Amino acid sequence: MKSESISTISSSGHRKRKSVKRKKTGYRILNTIPHYQVDNANSNSKAVTRARKFISEQGIVPSAVIEVFGKKKTDKFFWSKAGLYSLEHVAANYAGFPELNEHVRQYNEMLNTK
After folding, report:
1. CB half-sphere exposure, 100, CA atoms < 13 A
2. Of 20, 54, 82, 85, which is most buried with the most CB atoms under 10 A?
3. Do residues 84 and 77 touch, judged by C-beta distance below 8 A?
4. In whole angstroms, how large is the CA radius of gyration of the chain?
5. Are 38 and 50 in contact (CB under 8 A)?
6. Among 58, 101, 97, CA closest to 80
7. Out of 23-27, 71-75, 85-89, 110-114, which region has the weakest mean confidence (pLDDT)?
């Protein structure tokens, strides 16, 4: 049996799900940073490869969201100082990305002024 960290397994032995509210908050925070779109429909390369190529060609600086449109689906990535991550992962774990701290602070201020 593969050992798992305590934080990812509940007492009943099932994986804990990330809070839906936390993911929604993460997506709201990510909507405040620059977004770029790139078409990959006519290419044989993978979405992540196309995103990396687009980043280097355009000279995009972190933090940014890259949306790669394919023939059947759209892949979304977060370009950070540490590399390229799935947008879903970043939305659920935004606290682990220091470059988002300012955006989190602004988001919290916006909520407090309502």
Report:
1. 28
2. 54
3. yes
4. 17
5. yes
6. 97
7. 110-114
